[in-house]
Write a structure and sequence with these properties.
Layout: H1 2-5, H2 8-16, H3 20-37, H4 45-66, H5 77-85, H6 90-121
């Protein structure tokens, strides 16, 4: 199932929803993670922590535009070896981030309703 949804075409469709500036932001995040993955001391715990944080930022960014498709990020060829070497649990990373994003959207909605009710009450 994931193989079908994690196609290159699906990711291209998702990227079309991004503005040029957002595509540049994505490229910046990709370069950041790539630079860490290619560093001389890659595999040390500090470097792996940096890689995990960087990859999490990319997954979080893609989640805004691609939703569930962002979970496919770690399956991309460029991230497979670094993810294995640093024991990245991409599924867990995605679930935790999706929960945070979902919670943030709910909080924003509640806040908007609260403000609307206060404005009506005046």
């Amino acid at each position: 199932m994931c193989e079908q949804t994690c196609s290159r075409d699906a990711m291209l469709i998702c990227r079309r929803a991004m503005t040029e500036e957002e595509q540049q932001q994505e490229q910046h995040l990709i370069m950041e993670a790539s630079t860490i993955a290619q560093s001389f001391n890659f595999g040390s715990e500090d470097t792996c922590d940096s890689f995990r944080r960087s990859l999490a930022k990319l997954v979080r960014f893609r989640n805004e535009f691609c939703g569930d498709l962002s979970r496919c990020t770690c399956g991309e060829a460029r991230w497979e070896a670094p993810s294995v070497r640093c024991a990245v649990d991409c599924e867990r990373m995605w679930r935790e981030d999706a929960f945070v994003v979902d919670s943030a959207h709910r909080i924003t909605a509640y806040f908007a309703v609260f403000l609307l009710l206060r404005m009506i009450a005046w």
